[in-house]
Amino acid sequence: MKPLSGNVKIPDVPSTQTAIMKPAEEPPAYAQIAKEHALAQAELLKRQEELERKAAELDRRERAMQGLNQQRGRKNNWPPLPENFPVGPCFYQDFSVDIPVEFQKTVKIMYYLWMCKYFFKEKAKCLFKLETCLIIWLLQHLQ
Fold first, then answer.
1. Nearest to residue 74, comparing CAs of 84, 66, 82?
2. What's the rounded Cα separation, in Å, for the pair 105 and 52?
3. CB 94 within 8 A of CB 102
4. What is the pTM of this model?
5. Given Cys at both, which of 13, 85, 99, 110 links 81, Cβ 3.0 to 4.6 Å?
6. Based on the domain organization, do 96 and 133 belong to the same domain?
7. Which domain holds residue 38?
8. Tens-of-pLDDT digits for all 143 residues of the chain?
C-alpha cells in the first residue's frame, strides 16, 4: 500500500515566494505601552516625593514643638494646685497651643460647663453630707 499513489497529484508551485502569514490583528503598540508605563512611573514618583515632603514637614514640626517645650520649660499646670501642696499638677494644658484657633471658643465653653457640672455636683454632695451630719448630731444631742 502506497499512501500517495493513485490519482493524487502534487501541484507545481514556484519556489521563489517565501511563506509569510499576515496576522489577523495588528500587534500591540509597544511604544504606546511604554509611554503609559513611563507616565504611571512618573505619577508614582511624584506621589512618593509628595509623601516624603509631608513626612519631612511633620518631622520639622515635631522637632520645633520639642524645642519649644525644652526652651520654655513647660511645667505641668493642671489641675491648679497651691505651691505648698504635696502633690503637683498632672499635665500641661494651654488652649492657645494645643487647640486650633477655630475650635478654641467651643472647647473653652465645653470645658467650663464640664468643670461647673462637677463642681456643683461635688458641692451638692458635700452639702448633703454636711446636712446629714448636722441632723445626726442634733438627734444625738437633743435626746
1. 66
2. 34
3. no
4. 0.34
5. 85
6. yes
7. 31-73
8. 555 555 656 566 555 666 666 666 665 667 777 888 888 999 999 999 999 999 999 998 888 877 766 656 677 877 788 888 888 888 887 777 778 889 888 988 888 888 888 778 777 887 778 778 878 877 777 76
